[in-house]
């Protein structure tokens, strides 16, 4: 892992005036160029965390640096490095796409550059709509406008807060494509989502936040390997009365006797070997079967296990 | 200092003005023209001169001032309230800007629009009543200073308001009475003793008088005091806005 993280969060706490502790001491380092997905149930603190890093929320204690700049002491440099796409579709409804994106560029301190604004609009398939008023656009298009605004000042870090909430499947896939292209250009992307499919599809690393605490940060593949399970189901030609002994202690038989199941914890087993051994053992004992199904647990199941076990 | 941000905010706000040209400029001009027809031309002909100035001409500075006050407050308060209401304020809060850029952009645009309106109204007034301007440089100075001061006040109002009702009620319940009782249509010397003294606590009196002095060289209070009072009020507004940004009042949780 790179030794030079682009965002460093240390001991970050946030207590709202109501007394609600939204963040309870978060420590997190985001690597340069990665796609980091922050998962968590509603109210876990995802948006508060992003809000603090981007300057919308004041931290109670702790520090954050973005691209090496402290977000409080050196807020100008820190914020210039960051682009934020908020969760709400908050747009200047009466403005044109071109004006609102140009405005964002200026606001973040960059001189007007028609070519750069054009490039951003084309990248997001908004070029045809550049003179359209935002209120005439569909929800998906408005989401693109928000991304274009966030990219207009060429940020090195992009925060996407629930980028595909309320977006249809096709647009969601488009959005994923956009995010991947940005990563190829070297932009670090931090997204929050509660569509676990999204994190599974895109993220390099995953952080799970729950009740204001970061309960886990792990590479996606390692996470799915270490916490994932593989379930093997063997459909038998003839029903058995009991689990055949001597094959595997973890084998279970369905109540009708026609399906043998084996659940493998990825952490301790070499899955493929176990499946092969099971098949060989069944053949050796003359137990005939018609189907073998293996299913790996999804990130969603892992997530539900993780968060569910805490509540 | 982020000069690009000032430019971006200023141009964005000005384009909002020109997009809503009719309500931004035409409506105040029409309502002021009505004042001139009724008070200046119709009633004014039956009124005595005040300090040697015909009544129609006497009310010109007061009417310009009244428009300047209400429009500055309305523009600036709406300019900052709108992004708070729609949620687009997130961008301003996450941008590399300080209170200086935000004020220069938003208040600068609101004040520019008010000064433009004031100029249009002066020109309109010239069609109804003849008047001269004795101290044109001071006239412009007062115009700009007051536009800036009340845009600042409007900006505070727009930050403080948490609904469209509050946005309307302060101009309606506080500013309009102060403007009417601030000697817009009369000289406060015309008031009986106690009410004249009470009037001196109305800040609008100083604005209207300073402005009127720049037109006709005569006023109820000295122009130096008028200018000083306007500055004090402006400094007060800058102080309040800076405090709001420093503490995140109604902006950052």
TrEMBL record, chain A:
Cross-referenced Gene3D superfamilies: P-loop containing nucleotide triphosphate hydrolases (3.40.50.300)
Alphabetical UniProt keywords: ATP-binding, Nucleotide-binding, Transport
InterPro entries (alphabetical): AAA+_ATPase, ABC_transporter-like_ATP-bd, ABC_transporter-like_CS, ABC_transporter_ATP-binding, P-loop_NTPase
Entry keyword annotation includes ATP-binding: yes
Coiled-coil region: none
UniProt xrefs under SUPFAM superfamilies: P-loop containing nucleoside triphosphate hydrolases
Nucleotide-binding recorded as keyword: yes
PROSITE patterns referenced in this protein's UniProt entry, alphabetically: ABC_TRANSPORTER_1 (PS00211), ABC_TRANSPORTER_2 (PS50893)
Alphabetized Pfam families for the sequence: ABC_tran
GO MF, one example: ATP binding
Annotated ABC transporter domain residues: 7-236
SMART domains xrefs: AAA
Signal sequence interval, chain numbering: none
Similarity annotation: Belongs to the ABC transporter superfamily.
Protein name: ABC-2 type transport system ATP-binding protein
From TrEMBL, chain B:
Gene Ontology CC annotations of this record: ATP-binding cassette (ABC) transporter complex
Location, primary (coarse class): membrane
Keyword Aminoacyl-tRNA synthetase on entry: no
Sequence ranges assigned to domain ABC transmembrane type-2 in this UniProt record: 19-248
Pfam families per UniProt: ABC2_membrane (PF01061)
Topological type in the membrane: Multi-pass membrane protein
GO molecular function: ABC-type transporter activity
Localization in the cell: Cell inner membrane; Membrane
Key words of the record: Cell membrane, Membrane, Transmembrane, Transmembrane helix, Transport
Regions crossing the membrane: 20-43, 55-82, 102-125, 137-161, 167-188, 224-245
InterPro entries, per database record: ABC-2_transport_permease, ABC2_TM, ABC2_TM_bact-type, ABC_2_transport
Cell membrane keyword on record: yes
Family membership noted in the UniProt record: Belongs to the ABC-2 integral membrane protein family.
PANTHER family, A to Z: INNER MEMBRANE TRANSPORT PERMEASE YADH-RELATED, TRANSPORT PERMEASE PROTEIN
Name of protein: Transport permease protein
């Amino acid at each position: 892992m790179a030794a030079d993280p682009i965002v460093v969060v240390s001991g970050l706490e946030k207590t709202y005036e109501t007394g609600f502790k939204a963040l309870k001491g978060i420590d997190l380092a985001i690597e340069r160029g990665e796609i980091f997905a922050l998962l968590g149930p509603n109210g876990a603190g995802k948006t508060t965390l992003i809000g603090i890093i981007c300057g919308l929320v004041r931290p109670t204690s702790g520090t954050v640096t973005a691209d090496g700049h402290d977000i409080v002491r050196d807020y100008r440099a820190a914020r210039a490095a960051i682009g934020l796409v908020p969760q709400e579709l908050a747009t200047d409804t009466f403005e044109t796409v071109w004006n609102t994106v140009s405005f964002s560029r200026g606001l973040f301190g960059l001189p007007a550059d028609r070519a750069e604004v054009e490039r951003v609009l084309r990248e997001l398939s908004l070029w045809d709509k550049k003179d359209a008023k935002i209120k005439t656009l569909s929800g998906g298009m408005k989401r693109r406008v928000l991304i274009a605004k966030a990219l207009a000042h060429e940020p090195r870090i992009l925060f996407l807060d629930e980028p595909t909430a309320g977006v249809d499947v096709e647009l969601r896939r488009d959005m994923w494509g956009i995010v991947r292209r940005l990563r190829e250009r070297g932009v670090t992307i931090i997204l929050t989502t509660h569509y676990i499919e999204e994190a599974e599809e895109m993220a390099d690393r995953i952080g799970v936040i729950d009740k204001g605490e970061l309960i886990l940060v792990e590479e996606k593949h390692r996470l799915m390997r270490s916490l994932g399970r593989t379930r093997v189901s063997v459909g038998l030609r003839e029903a058995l009365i009991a689990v055949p002994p001597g094959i595997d202690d973890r084998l279970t038989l369905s109540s009708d006797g026609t399906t043998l199941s084996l659940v493998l914890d990825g952490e301790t087993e070499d899955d493929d070997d176990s499946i092969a051994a099971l098949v060989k053992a069944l053949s050796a004992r003359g137990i005939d079967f018609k189907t073998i199904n293996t299913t790996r647990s999804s990130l969603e199941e892992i997530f539900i296990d993780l968060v569910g076990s805490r509540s | 200092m982020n000069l690009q941000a000032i430019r971006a905010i200023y141009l964005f706000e000005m384009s909002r003005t020109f997009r809503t040209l009719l309500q931004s400029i035409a409506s105040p001009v029409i309502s002021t023209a009505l004042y001139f027809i009724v008070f200046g031309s119709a009633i004014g002909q039956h009124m005595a001169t005040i300090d040697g100035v015909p009544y129609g001409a006497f009310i010109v500075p007061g009417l310009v001032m009244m428009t300047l006050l209400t429009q500055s407050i309305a523009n600036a308060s709406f300019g900052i309230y709108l992004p708070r209401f729609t949620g687009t304020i997130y961008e301003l809060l996450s941008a590399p800007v300080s209170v200086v850029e935000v004020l220069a952009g938003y208040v600068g645009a609101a004040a520019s629009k008010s000064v433009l309106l004031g100029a249009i109204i002066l020109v309109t007034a010239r069609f109804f009543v003849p008047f001269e301007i004795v101290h044109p440089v001071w006239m412009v100075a007062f115009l700009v200073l007051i536009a800036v001061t009340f845009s600042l006040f409007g900006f505070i109002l727009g930050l403080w308001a948490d609904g469209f009702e509050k946005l309307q009620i302060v101009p309606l319940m506080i500013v309009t009475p102060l403007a009417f009782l601030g000697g817009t249509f009369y000289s406060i010397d015309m008031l009986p003793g106690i009410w004249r003294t009470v009037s001196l606590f109305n800040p609008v009196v100083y604005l209207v008088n300073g402005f009127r002095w720049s037109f006709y060289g005569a006023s109820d209070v000295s122009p130096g005091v008028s200018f000083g009072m306007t500055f004090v009020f402006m400094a007060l507004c800058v102080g309040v806005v800076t405090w709001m940004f420093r503490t995140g009042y109604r902006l950052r949780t």
